[in-house]
Amino acid sequence: MKAVLCRQYGEPLTMADVTPPPLGAGEVRIQVAACGINFPDTLIIQGKYQFKPDLPFSPGSEVAGEVIEVAPDVSGFAIGDPVIAVTLWGGFAEQIIAKAWQVMHRPASMDAVTAAAFSTMSSVSPVGGIGVGLLVTRSFRSYRWTEIVFDLAVTKRVASPFASVLREPPM
Description:
The chain is α+β, with helices and mostly antiparallel strands. 20% of the residues lie in helices and 26% in strands. The protein has helices spanning 39-46, 112-124, 143-155, and strands spanning 2-5, 14-17, 27-37, 62-70, 82-86, 95-99, 103-105, 164-166. Strands 3, 4, 5, 6, 7 and 8 form a six-stranded antiparallel sheet that branches. Strands 1-2 form a two-stranded antiparallel sheet. Strand 1 (2-5) and strand 2 (14-17) form a beta hairpin.
């Protein structure tokens, strides 16, 4: 698969062919359709973020795509499900493996580009019309609550995601 790689902190990113990693217990493999780009990504590739992945790695933490493989011990996801995942890195690739707890279902009414930008928007913007001062959090410790608020924001059209996203240009 193709992936954008950070081979050395602070150096330009490169495109490379890499072998997809094996799927482990509790994990879901996603075919990436879009990946958000945000400020933490710039810190991670400079080695200035609080977490430093082993080199080389693919940046990108907010992805939208479709489930293409599910570990046998994972329930709630099936091949073909449209999803959003928030990881620390790995999204600037054709596929990403995420822990099942990092993944949530994407409403059919939301396209992948909007979905990839959603967690960036939700971490900085109040979601009006749901509650006074309520913020959608990026914490997946309470992902079911986040998913409920997320669904409300999408179906009630009370949030308007904004962010840059990485995707292949139309052919």
